[in-house]
């Protein structure tokens, strides 16, 4: 059984966030959004709630600030090593971006509650030998690069996150989006869970329909 195998059965709510603050040594957060996600994960572990969290590995962190010789503020990468704090999972999924397949691999971090209940955090990584050099950089730096780089990151988080959870065996019925960075997961759900034409839905599409088989999305 994989490290995630025992965690799959009862986790049916997925929380997607571009960043998450797990511990000071893991530089996968930039500020309040990540702190909120991290606090939510710890609260879920304390309350024994059936959630799984999905984020990017962000190997180079967000930024480390400093002052140069001229007294100007500068920033540089703030790297961390996933191998020191997380476990690699035996799953890889292809993701079409700009006409080519980009492979995504998950790492697993466990948030442990006071009763030893664990909440899994899936961290997505494209730094793989199968990928072109530019694609290996997609999950490298949190909020780095231009708009095209950010869009690739959001494709990996939203679409790739859904596919990785499926590959790992999770059966998710509710998705929570921590702001709009994972919004493209809604397009992936619409692609894979098509509503029959004869089934009416009077509820908001942001919440979902009671007869709609796909997971609901909440922000």
Write up what this structure looks like:
- By secondary structure, this protein is an alpha/beta fold.
- The protein has a single domain (5-218), classed as Rossmann fold, CATH 3.40.50.2000.
- The protein has helices spanning 5-8, 32-47, 82-85, 133-136, 147-168, 184-192; strands at residues 13-16, 51-56, 64-67, 73-76, 87-88, 93-97, 100-112, 118-125, 174-177, 216-218.
- Strand 1, helix 2 (32-47) and strand 2 (51-56) form a beta-alpha-beta unit.
- Helix 5 packs across helix 6.
SSE ordering? HEHEEEHEEEEHHEHE
- What is the typical, i.e. mean, pLDDT? 87
The 3D shape can be described as: globular
Strand content: 15-25%
Provide a count of the helices.
6
Q: Biggest sheet, open or closed, and with what strands and sense?
A: 8 strands, mixed
**Sheet/helix structural class:** alpha/beta
What low-confidence regions span 5 or more consecutive residues with pLDDT below 50?
Answer: 202-213
Distance between the termini: 33 Å
Strands, count: 10
Radius of gyration: 18 Å
CATH class: Alpha Beta
CATH structural fold name = Rossmann fold
CATH architecture type: 3-Layer(aba) Sandwich
Give the helices and strands, then pairings:
Layout: H1 5-8, E1 13-16, H2 32-47, E2 51-56, E3 64-67, E4 73-76, H3 82-85, E5 87-88, E6 93-97, E7 100-112, E8 118-125, H4 133-136, H5 147-168, E9 174-177, H6 184-192, E10 216-218
Parallel strand pairs: 1-2, 1-9, 2-8, 9-10
Antiparallel strand pairs: 3-4, 5-7, 6-7, 7-8
């Amino acid at each position: 059984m994989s490290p995630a195998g025992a965690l799959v059965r009862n986790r049916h709510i997925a929380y997607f966030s571009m960043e998450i603050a797990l511990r000071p040594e893991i530089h996968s957060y930039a500020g309040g959004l990540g702190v909120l996600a991290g606090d939510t994960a710890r609260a879920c572990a304390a309350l024994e709630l059936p959630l799984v969290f999905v984020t990017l590995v962000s190997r180079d962190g967000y930024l480390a600030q400093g002052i140069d010789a001229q007294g100007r503020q500068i920033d540089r990468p703030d790297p961390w090593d996933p191998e020191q704090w997380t476990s690699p999972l035996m799953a890889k999924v292809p993701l079409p971006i700009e006409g080519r397949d980009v492979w995504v691999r998950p790492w697993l971090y466990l948030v442990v509650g006071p009763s030893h209940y664990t909440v899994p955090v899936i961290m997505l990584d494209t730094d793989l030998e199968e990928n072109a050099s530019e694609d290996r950089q997609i999950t490298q730096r949190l909020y780095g690069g231009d708009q095209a780089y950010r869009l690739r990151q959001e494709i990996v988080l939203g679409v790739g996150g859904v596919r990785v959870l499926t590959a790992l065996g999770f059966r998710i019925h509710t998705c929570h989006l921590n702001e709009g960075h994972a919004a493209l997961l809604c397009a992936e759900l619409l692609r894979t869970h098509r509503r029959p034409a004869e089934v009416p839905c009077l509820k908001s599409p942001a919440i979902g329909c009671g007869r709609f088989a796909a997971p609901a999305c909440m922000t």
